[in-house]
Amino acid sequence: MVSWIQVVYNGLVFGSIILLGAIGVSYLYGIVNVPNFAHGELMTIGAYVAYMASVTLGLPFLVAPVISALVTTAVGVALDRVLFRGRRNWTAVALLMLTLGASFVLRAAIRMVWGPDPLSYDLPLVRDVTVFDVTVGTAGLRLPLRLDVNLVELGIVLVGVTLATAMYLLLNYTKVGTTMRATADNRRLARIAGVDTERVFLVVWIISGALAAIAGIALGVKDGVIGPRMGFGVLLVVFTAVILGGVGDFYGAILGSYAVGIVHEAVVVVPFLKVSYGSALVFAVLIAGLLFKPEGITGGGGSSHG
Amino acid sequence: MADPLAFLVSMVTFSAVYAILALGLNLQWGYTGLFNLSVAAFWGVGAYTATLITKPPAADTAFGFGVPYLWVDVAGIPLPLAPAIVVAAVVSGVVALIIGIPTLGLEEEYLAIASLGFAEIIRLVFVNENWLAGGVLGTSVDSPLSGMEDGSLVLLAVTVVVVGLVYVVLKLLVTSPWGRVLKSIREDETVAEALGKNAFVYKIQSLVIGSMIMGMAGAITALQLNYVSPSQFTAEWTVYIWIAVILGGGGSVRGAVLGGFALTLLLEGTRFLNQLFVGLSSNVLNNVRIMAIGLILIAFIIYRPQGLLGDTTIIRDMKE
After folding, report:
1. How far apart are the C-alpha atoms of A150 and A155, rounded to whole Å?
2. Dihedral (Cα; A169, A174, A179, A183), 10-degree rounding
3. Is A261 in contact with A12 (CB distance < 8 Å)?
4. A90 phi and psi, to 5 degrees?
5. Tens of pLDDT along B277-302?
6. In this predicted model, what pLDDT tens digit does every residue of B166-202 receive, in sequence order?
7. d(CA B248, CA A251)
8. From A200, A229, A242, A248, which residue has the greatest number of CB atoms within 10 Å?
9. Distance separating alpha carbons of residues B170 and B162, to the nearest angstrom
10. Does B120 contact chain A (CB < 8 Å)?
11. Within 13 Å of residue B140, how many CA atoms lie on the same side as its CB?
C-alpha cells in the first residue's frame, strides 16, 4: 500500500510549482481578460533562460532565476504591447485565439534557439532523506506511514509559499494591490475612480512573467530535464487550478493549485491507472468540477476578493 | 503512377481530409460559437475506431471485429456503404456527447479549456494502453486498398465523395431553421433563449454533428497513412485546423473547404523556405515554418477575422 503522507507531500511540491503559474494565469484572465494559452511557453522560456545563464554562461545557479525572471517578464510585456494592448475591448475568446497563435510562435522560437532535445541543469544530485517509516494499526488493518523528502523539493515549496505570501502582502497592503483588486472587480468603475488601468495591466504582466519564470525553473529542477513542451504540458493543469479556484480569485488559486497538485500525485493510489495518468486525473476532476460547481471551490462567483 | 502525380494525389487527399475536419469545426465554431479545442482527439477517435473494428478478430489489438472498411458485399455486389467510416462517426459523436454535457452550459472559454483537457485524456489513453492499439508505437491498418494498384486514387475518390456529402448536408443544415437558431446562439444566446429555443440542446447537437464529421476524417486518415499512432493526433493539429477555418472564414461552408486546401499550401508550401535559406539547420528551418504559420494565424485574427469567405458578423462578436 502507498503512504498517503507521501502522496500529500508530493502534491504540495507539485502544487507549489502549479501555484506559481496559476497566480499569473488567474490575474491575466481575471484582470486583463486574457486567458493566456501562451503561459506554458512563458514557463518554458523561464526554464531555458535559466539554463542559458547557469550552464551556457556559467553564472551561479542562484543568479539564474533573477535573469530568467527579467527576460520572461520582458517577453510577457512585449506580448501585451504587440497583441493585447490595442484590443482591450475584445472578448476573452477572441484574445484566447491570439494567445494560441502566440504560444505556437514562442514554442517554435524556443526550439529554434535551444533545439528540440531535452537539456538538463548541471546540478549536484540531492539524496532523499527518510523522515519516518513506520506501520501503524492492528493486524487487521495496517497503514504504512513513510515520508521521503529532499532539499530541492522542500526548497520549491518554500519558494512557492514565500512568493504567494509576497503576492498576498502586495495585494492587501500596497496601493498597487488596491488598484489591482479594484480593476479585477470592475474595470470601468476603477477607471472612473481614477485608477490607471493600463498601469495595472502592466504590473499584472510583470508579476505573471516573473512567477512563470520561477515556475518553469522549479519544474526543470524537480524533473531534472527541460524541454520545449514542458510548459505546454502543465498549462492545462495550471488552468484547472485557476478554474477550480475561481478565475481572478487569489485564495482560490492557492487552494486550487494544492488540490490539483495532490490529485495529480494521488494517481498512484488509483487502481489500474498508470502513473502517467496524473494529468488525466486532474482533467477528470476539472470536468467534474465544472459540472457540479462551475463557480469554483471558494464559490466567489469569479470576482476577486484577494 | 509517376512520382509528381502520386505526390499531387496525396496532397489533394490530405487537403480534402483537412477540409472535412474544417467543415466539422466550422459548424461548431463558425456557426454556433463553440470553442472546441479537441479537434485532434475526435480525428484520432475516428481513426482508431475505424482501424480497430476492421481488424480481424485474432489481431494483436484489444479487439477486432473484421468489419468491412469501405464496401459491403451483398450477393457478390460490393455496395459502397463504408461501414468503418460510419461507425467512426458514431463513436466520435458519442464521445462528443460525453464532453458536451458538462461543458456546454458554461461560458465559452471553459469549453476551450475542458475540451483541450479531454483531448489530452484521450491522447494519454492512446499512449499508455498498449493492449488497446499498441500504445506509443501504434498499430497498422488493415486497408482494403493496400493490394490495389491505384489504391491512392480510390482513396482520393472516397475522400472527395465524403467532402461532397458533408458539404451538401451542412449546406442544407445551416440554411434550415435549425441552422438559423445556431447562428442566433452564436450572436446572442440570451436572445435565442428568449425566443423559446433551448440553446443547450442546439449546442449539443452542433458539437455532436461536427465531431462526427471529424471522426469520418479520422477513418480516412487511417486508410491514407496505413498506420495509426498517438503522434499523429497531437494538439498542434487542433491549432492547424483552427487556422484552416479562420483562413477560409468562420460561418461559411465554402470557406471551410477552401481553408482545408489553404492549410496544405501553408504546411507544404512553406517548405520552399528550405530552398531559400540554404545552410541553415533543418531544426531552424522547420521552426521558421511553424513560426510563420503561427504569425499568419495571428495576422488573420487581427486584420481579417472573417477570413477569406467568412461571415463578417464574426468581427462584431469578437468585441464586448
Report:
1. 9
2. 0
3. yes
4. -75, 155
5. 777 777 888 888 889 889 999 999 99
6. 999 999 999 999 999 988 888 888 888 888 888 899 9
7. 43
8. A242
9. 12
10. yes
11. 7
| Partner A, chain B 183-242, Cβ-Cβ below 8 Å | 235-236, 239, 242
What phi and psi, each to the nearest 5 degrees, are found at residue A177? -60, -40
Q: What angle do CA B160, B52, B148 make, to 5 degrees?
A: 50
Q: Which amino acid is at A37?
A: F
Q: Which residue of A has its CA nearest to B114?
A: A287
Where do the H-state alpha helices sit in chain B?
A: 3-25, 39-54, 83-103, 108-128, 130-133, 151-175, 177-187, 189-194, 199-225, 235-248, 253-269, 273-276, 282-303, 313-317
The answer to whether B124 contacts A236, with C-beta atoms less than 8 Å apart, is no
Please give the radius of gyration of chain A, using alpha carbons only, rounded to the nearest integer: 20
Which positions ≥6 away from A10 have C-beta within 8 Å? A261, A265
Closest among A190, A168, A165 to A177, alpha carbons compared: A168
Tell if the CB–CB gap between B102 and A92 is shorter than 8 Å: no
Closest to A29 measured CA to CA, from A247, A185, A304, A252: A247
Contact A98 B298 (CB under 8 A): yes
Report how far residue A99's alpha carbon sits from residue A120's, in angstroms, rounded to the nearest whole number.
28
C-alpha cell at B194: 428568449
Nearest-CA distance B118 → chain A (Å): 7
Strands B227-228 and B139-140: antiparallel
Please give the grid coordinates belonging to residue B51: 482501424
State the CB neighbour count (10 A cutoff) for residue B320: 10
What the block records as the C-alpha cell of B217 is 476524417
Angle at A201 (CA atoms; ends A196, A203), nearest 5 degrees: 95
Long-range contacts of B64-68 (CB under 8 A, 24+ apart): B68/B144
Residues of chain A with pLDDT under 70: 1, 293-306
Q: Which three cell numbers stand for residue A260?
A: 490539483
The tens digit of pLDDT for each residue in B58-112 reads 777 778 777 887 777 777 777 777 888 999 999 999 999 988 888 887 777 788 8
Tracing cell 535573469 back to the chain, one arrives at A67
ipTM of the complex: 0.86
Question: Per residue, what are the HEC states of B204-252?
Answer: HHHHHHHHHHHHHHHHHHHHHHCEECHHHCCHHHHHHHHHHHHHHCCCC
Which residues in chain B are closer than 8 Å to A100, comparing Cβ atoms?
239, 242, 297
- The CA angle B177-B28-B113, to the nearest 5 degrees, is 145
Secondary structure of A198-253 in HEC code, one letter for each residue: HHHHHHHHHHHHHHHHHHHHHHHHHHCCECCCHHHHHHHHHHHHHHHHCCCCHHHH
Spatial separation of the C-alpha atoms in residues B172 and B86, rounded to whole Å: 20
The residue whose grid cell reads 547557469 is A54
Q: Which residues contact A22 (CB under 8 A, 6 or more apart)?
A: A238, A241, A242, A245, A253, A256, A257
CA-CA distance, A256 to A20, in Å (whole number)? 12
> Would you call A178 exposed, middle or buried from its count of C-beta atoms within 10 A (0-12, 13-18, 19+)?
middle
Q: At what angle do helices A92-114 and A39-51 cross, to 10 degrees?
A: 20
Contact B121/A at CB under 8 A: yes
CB B140 within 8 Å of CB B128? no
Residue type, A117: D
